[in-house]
Structure formats: structure tokens, C-alpha cells
Amino acid sequence: MTPYTSTRVxxxxxxxxxxxxxxxxxxxxxxxxxxxxxxxxxxxxxxxVVFCWHGLELFxxxxxxxxxxxxxxxxxxxxxxxxxxxxxxxxxxRKDGLFNDVKIIMFTTSSSKHESxxxxxxxxxxxxxxxxxxxxxxDIMKWFVGLCKEKPRKLERISTNxx
Length: 163
Fold this sequence. Notes:
Blueprint: E1 6-8, E2 22-26, H1 30-43, E3 48-52, H2 55-64, E4 74-77, H3 86-96, E5 103-108, H4 113-121, E6 126-129, H5 134-147
Parallel strand pairs: 1-3, 2-3, 2-4, 4-5, 5-6
């Protein structure tokens, strides 16, 4: 498959072309999506960013993966989204154990200690408050790139709990 720089999931039906090196990101703010995509394109254009509008859509995307499809290099979740918020999405993904090796990062404007503790306890790899300045943004985006440097892995089994 030829890599491309970004795509958007619509009703989780855009899983026809699964990239081999990608970040799966649930974010309902178009400005935040655009900023994340532009920074990733600048720092590491070979990594695709697949956007979902909310956690349920991201969960549906994962649900449509088949054995042999590439897993996301990492999953990024905003906290405050319609339908399923980031914490609910995190808990639903972690219930089954199928995606336990995929790092899930909470990337949000929230700086709530309670939300941070809840996310880490529920299986998040990290809880990052979105920066408000470019210098901190670049450092954080370089950290995301570092998470994606491992060789892409493929889904080895299907979960009966997700379906």
C-alpha cells in the first residue's frame, strides 16, 4: 500500500485502505485536527494520521480491522467529545485486551488531576495537556513521532468482545 499523509473516518467505513504506519486520533475540533496533521506532516510525513470525530467512531474503526491489518502505532484521544468521550473510549478499548500493546495517549485541553489519574488507571500510556505555544507543541509532536518509530504490527486475532 502506498502511504498517504492523512485521512478522515466517516462512520468508520473508511477502513478500506488501512495504512501501515498510522496514528488513530479521535478529536472533534477541526482546528486541533489540522494543527496535529500539519505538525506530523512537517516532522514525519511517512506517518498517516487517521482522524475520527469521536470515541465511538474510533472504536468502530478498530472493530472493522481484520486479521492481517496493521494496528495503529498509537491511539490519541481527546477527553471532551460528543457521543463517547475519551475516557469511555479508553475503557472500552482496554476491556478486551486485544489492543493492550497499542499505546493510548490522552491529548486534551483538560489539566484535571482527577481525569489524569482516571486515564492512567484505565490504561492510558500518558495524559498530555495540549500546549498553547508553538515551542512546546513541537516538543510534544516530536514525542508522538518517537512513539511511532517501532515497526508497524499487524492484528493477529479478532476479538469477540468488540464485535
